[in-house]
């Protein structure tokens, strides 16, 4: 196999139950010119056996000797990648068949300052289906740095295709983050490059048991890291400062760290006291009422 146009990186850790679906959806793409780098992050289940069921020369399998986490595993894949474009798949998600084809057509017409082409996606939570980005996100392409800073990250990692040279420019995933490493990466990319957006949902993401997103302590650590790392820009807008303090406060309360959670909610209110919903939440937290 010669040099591929796209390198697809799929990190996985003990997701053998779902991995077949994720791999099949990549190999079934209408766009064919890619390699699929599966980074097994020291799984202890039958992940290797599942990968071995697929007889496709585009698959490259590597197993880490120790668990590095999602950011570390993706970085291993990026370093191995031969393509000029990098795409990511999660081990429990489903790409729609025309995803890569439509994204690469956008890149064919795009100027070189476009670093990311991402798509809407369907998030399945039990019987519910949510479309991301949600309607309140008004600016979804171009220079979207301010929009990304204002809202919880709305660029799904497995929806994105990224120019590898742009990744080399801003740096890879920050391995200090137990969560939200994608938000941090897209903020760094959005500060320097333009994004293009495809409104058609081209991925279905499934909330599955054991996902890191169910860990409140990981969220607290990640939010604090994100706030510190991007504080120079965050501090320029009191509403955004308040939102970050509020997110941290609510995560702390969720983890049972009530005193610290109240402190952050109060800091959020002080930063921007004109938010009536926040005022109610802060009062409830300070006076011991259930939020």
**Portion of residues within helices:** 40-55%
Number of helix segments? 12
CATH architecture annotation name of the largest domain: Alpha-Beta Complex
Give a quick account of the main beta sheet: strands, pairing sense, barrel closure: 7 strands, mixed
* Gyration radius, in Å: 20 Å
Strand content: 15-25%
Global shape? globular
Number of domains: 2
State the low-pLDDT regions, or none.
none
Query: What order do the strands of the largest sheet run in, or round the barrel if closed?
Result: 3-2-1-4-9-6-10
Strand/helix succession: EHEHEHEEHEEEHEHHEEHHHHH
Distance between the termini: 57 Å
Average per-residue pLDDT, rounded, comes to 93
Description:
The protein is α/β, with parallel strands linked by helices and 291 residues long. It folds into two domains: 6-212, Alpha-Beta Complex (Spore Coat Polysaccharide Biosynthesis Protein SpsA, Chain A), CATH 3.90.550.10; 215-286, Serine Threonine Protein Phosphatase 5, Tetratricopeptide repeat (Alpha Horseshoe). It is built from twelve helices and eleven strands. The strands form two sheets. A seven-stranded mixed β-sheet has the order 3-2-1-4-9-6-10, with helices on both faces. Helix 1 (16-27) links the parallel strand 1 (6-12) and strand 2 (34-40). Helix 8 runs antiparallel to helix 10, helix 10 (238-254) runs antiparallel to helix 11 and helix 11 packs antiparallel against helix 12 (276-286). The termini are far apart.
